[in-house]
Amino acid sequence: MLNNMTDTEEGEGGPNSQGDGNPKESSPFINSSSASDVEKSQQYDGKNMALFEEEMDNSPMVSSILSSLANYSNLPQGSKEHEEAENEEGAAPSKKKPAVKAPSLGTLMGVYLPCIQNIFGVILFLRMTWMVGIGGVFGSFFIVFMCCSTTMLTAISMSAIATNGVVPAGGSYYMISRSLGPEFGGAVGICFYLGTTFAGAMYILGAIELLLVYILPQAAIFKMEGLEGAEMEAAMLNNMRVYGTIVLSFMATVVFVGVKYVNKLALVFLACVILSILAVYAGVIKTAIEPPVFPVCILGNRTLISKGFDVCAKVIEQDNGTITTKLWRIFCDSEFLNATCDEYFANNNVSEIQGIPGVTSGILAENLFGYYLEKGDFLEKRGLSAVQDQEVPITNSNRYVLADITSFFTLLVGIYFPSVTGIMAGSNRSGDLRNAQRSIPIGTIAAITTTSTVYMSAVVLFGACIEGVVLRDKFGEGVNGNLVIGTLAWPSPWVIVIGSFFSTCGAGLQSLTGAPRLLQAISRDSVIPFLKVFGQGKANGEPTWALLLTASICEIGIIIASLDAVAPILSMFFLMCYMFVNLACALQTLLRTPNWRPRFKFYHWALSFLGMSLCLSLMFICSWYYAIVAMVIATCIYKYIEFAGAEKEWGDGIRGISLSAARYALMRLEEGPPHTKNWRPQILVLLSMDAEQNVEQPRLLSLTNQLKAGKGLTIVGTSVVGTFLNNHAEAQKAEQSLRKLMETEKVKGFSQVVISSNLRDGTSHLIQVGGLGGLKHNTVLVSWPRTWKQPEDNLRFRNFIEVVRETTAANMALLVPKNIAAYPSNGERFTEGHIDVWWIVHDGGMLMLLPFLLRQHKVWRKCKMRIFTVAQMDDNSIQMKKDLITFLYHLRIDAEVEVVEMHDSDISAYTYEKTLVMEQRSQILKQMHLTKNEMEREIQSITDSSRGSIRRNNPSNLCSQKSTDEPAGCSLSVPCNHYQRLFCPVRNQSNVRRMHTALRLNEVIMKKSKEAKLVLLNMPGPPKNRMGEDNYMEFLEVLTEGLNRVLLVRGGGREVITIYS
User: Fold this and answer.
1) DSSP annotation string for 78-142
2) What pLDDT was estimated at residue 1033?
3) DSSP state of 74
4) How confident is the model at residue 88 (pLDDT cuts 50, 70, 90)?
5) How much of the chain is helix, strand and coil, in % rounded to 5?
6) Backbone φ, ψ for residue 869 (5° rounding)
7) Radius of gyration (C-alpha) of the chain in whole angstroms
8) DSSP 3-state assignment of 208?
9) SLC12A transporter C-terminal domain location, by residue (predicted)?
10) Given a cut of 50, is residue 903 above it in pLDDT?
């Protein structure tokens, strides 16, 4: 009894019951337990919940799922391990589930310090002083303020997105992809990945520069001593390439072998950064009390390289005598006072200035404004005069400190911006945070505020403490090869040198650790098919292949070898990423999507747009050609994902924009019908399905593609007989078949399936309600019912005639291709041939427009267009041809023109025979649907009518009839065979005239267009009464008999083509 009850309940309300065919939603909010019905009913016993027990499968009790709702944490897209572990646990409850470690990081350790570590980097130690010297305090402060404002605005937008729900691993990529869709997400994700990868190259190059210039110059493989100009620069770059490749290989090996050690050393590297910055501030304070001694030797107003001499003077007094110094010997040909010396050396004095005069010295006023240099220019001291003969060539240039690159404002922006990146470090760790929605905004904004304060104060303090020529000395050549910022540090320059070296090494390791994981997250999302291989890794999930690709791309930056050249590249990619973070926040705010409910409230769409504008401006300020390259890369990735990527539905903002734009466009279309210049066939394709819900006429969609070429509206519709509840599954299968065929035939449009009690009503519903608002179809494409003469298909051809009537009543155009199976597929090509248009009546110009549209497609492109029109006896065919040529010229349509003359002729016996056969068939079909008594009465009435009208004038079985529709005295004859004696007289003389027209036109068309690739022909209107439907089909059959491909065209009653521009 219990088993029976269970079976019965499952049969009525179980998975196989009616209306429960949809798969369950995969969600933590839905209880997926597979308890028996008895257990489920027991769950509701005594709980006053019996009213809802039928919905237990899909709607669990709130009390049973509150715990899981409160502790719900989203999983990264593509990660299946957690779900598989849950399934295994449900299948084998005896196995003990390993304890999951709860997130424990707070704001300080989880967000603030990682952001500080990522933001402070190599640029602060190696290029900040140089930027202040070149750009001046005002210019540098503006650059710092602009860049920091950009990151602050981006952080505000990022905080809003990050607090709008759970953000899994993937950080910025996840936020952008889920906010802007897979196309933007993939494109920006790749750009962010490339930026992180090139950042690794920049940090490695910075570490090598610190090693070879300041720590261990003698380790250079390509010796630079004695070289000058381009040779010295090439040797330096080669050293950077060799050592950079070695360090990159070592770091990649470390990351591959033990990434956990990299994470453990992160705090050590962070301590190095903080200690170095504190040492700088301590040095600034010390300069106010006791400035350090860092003399700089100046010849005239030019800064001398400090190597090679010990005393900054030409001569010195020693033992009551004057002797020359090493500096004299550098510029003169001997050590004697009467030696021949360099012209500039002889005419100018040598002076020594303090490189760090101190914060109270007033040097700030001298450093307020910029001092931009061309490559090879001397570093000159402002305010000092020098004697120089412009006609004398410059000699001994290798003894002066020279500018190594041409500097300008935009270059400084590109070099500096990487020093403010790294604001995403906190959001990337969202899965490890105890309270991500609180920690990410507070920690990120606090980190940016701290670093911005440090940078802005550093600009002012550097300008106030350090001499201008020392600031512009990028490699410290005038201060004994010391790191310029190191000369300011206390207690020793080595604090900065060692600290910055370890911090740059740590930052490089972090980049090589983070970039492969970002690529792995993108690969596992399956939005970029060719990157799937990089989603794989070692058994513990480490991205081995992604690390290999990252190291290869990083090597490109190493080969570039110049820190100043690599920095603008990664600036582009980071700026693009930040720009789309701001765009995502602005769109979500403006679209007011229901799911946009961020906990962080201090945001506004105007701030996001300002941040986006700043990012876009900075991209072109830094380097317009790099910006274009970055955009081209992003655009190519976007289009690739759009065409080849996996379809994803993430509820993104771009979909929201599409909906808003579609609504706006539909409302605009409602304002009135389109102008004739904008008219194009918006096609409703009516297809019929077989018993297996497969399309019977797939070539209809091939023709649709050739007519539309992806432009305008296309609706592909069909009807399923039945009721919605009983036949919903069939309708879904039919819609899948339609979509699959549309994809195969590359038809861009919408599919629509209606369920109706009969096909006639279903087709009528499609014609009436297809489309939305002003975006409705104006043309119906339906195939010719080729088996209409068979009695079992009687209903089908009557439905066809009803479609003709309804489109005529709705003022829609109608296209009826005959012999649709003979039409070309999209892969075929006609290399020659004609498209013939038989323009008999004017119904808006559809006959002119359709061949033009077809010839835009590659199938018909080589075909030529011919237009035929028919002249009657009283028409001037010559003038008609001239007028038609002029009309086509104004329409800008190239076509051959021919006027066919059709003279009045006697109606042939064959015409009468065809008419009699047609009427006989109609009568027989009619009688097939009559009762026995009705049939006898019908035959008797026909016999009586025949006997009263037949005159037997001769014995030769010639029957003649005087039609009531014909004038008196007119007699028509036709031979009758033994089968036709009962129905021999033609009952309706208008049928004879119509058949005569059809035969004559068919004869002319066959003569002119039998070899044409396609014939377009005016379609006659349907009969006004339903008694002549069989005859109407016969007329159309006779009209098109013998032609391979015919497209019957019926206009919609409005002009669709115009001669005006």
Assistant:
1) T--HHHHHHHHHHH-TTSPPPPPPPP-B-HIIIIIHHHHHHHS-HHHHHTHHHHHHHHHHHHHHH
2) 81
3) P
4) very low
5) 55, 10, 35
6) -135, 160
7) 44
8) helix
9) 698-816, 830-1061
10) yes
Tell me if 898 sits within 8 A of 868, measured CB to CB: yes
Neighbours of 114 (CB within 10 A): 24
Q: Strands, DSSP E only, in 220-320?
A: 295-299, 302-303, 315-318
Which residue has better confidence, 313 or 166? 313
Cβ(232)–Cβ(305) below 8 Å = no
pLDDT value, residue 466: 92
Instruction: DSSP for 771-826, please give it.
Output: SBTTB---EEEE---TTTTSGGGHHHHHHHHHHHHHHHHTT-EEEEEESGGGSPPT
Q: What's residue 463's pLDDT?
A: 93
693 dihedral zone (left: phi>0; alpha: psi -120 to 50; beta): left
Going by C-alpha positions, the residue among 698, 919, 679 that lies closest to residue 817 is 698
pLDDT digits (tens, 9 = 90+) for 200-219: 999 999 999 999 888 888 88
- Residue with structure tokens 């077989």? 690
pLDDT of residue 914: 57
The answer to whether the beta carbons of residues 1017 and 784 sit under 8 Å apart is no
Helical segments of 163-219, H only: 172-209
- The residue with greater pLDDT, 42 or 227, is 227
Asked whether the beta carbons of 308 and 399 are under 8 A apart, the reply is: yes
Per-residue confidence band for 936, with pLDDT thresholds at 50, 70 and 90? low
Cα–Cα dist 945/948, whole Å: 5
The structure tokens listed for 737 are 């078949």
Say what the pTM is: 0.69
Indicate the pLDDT class of residue 1040, thresholds 50, 70 and 90: confident
Q: How far is 280 from 949, CA to CA, in rounded Å?
A: 124
pLDDT band at 647 (very low <50, low <70, confident <90, very high): low
CA distance 938 to 946: 12
* Interval 639-660 mean pLDDT: 71
Residue 1056 is given by DSSP the state: -
C-alpha distances in Å from residue 494, one per residue of 120, 245, 535: 18, 26, 43
Q: What is the mean pLDDT of residues 743-764?
A: 88
For residues 433 and 156, the model is more confident at 156
Report the DSSP beta bridge partners of residue 719.
Answer: 754
CA pair distance 1035, 1058, nearest whole angstrom: 32
Question: What are residue 219's DSSP bridge partners?
Answer: none
For residues 242-270, give the mean pLDDT: 85
Q: How sure is the predictor about 917, in pLDDT bands with cuts at 50, 70 and 90?
A: low
The encoded tokens of residue 59 equal 């709607």
- Please say whether the beta carbons of 831 and 862 come within 8 A: yes
First and final C-alpha spacing in the chain = 83
Q: Between 512 and 103, name the one with better pLDDT.
A: 512
Give the dihedral of Cα atoms 1023, 1026, 1029, 1032; nearest 10 deg: -10
Q: What are the Cα distances from residue 560, in Å, to 234, 435, 567?
A: 12, 42, 11
- Would the CA dihedral through 353, 354, 355, 359 be positive or negative? negative
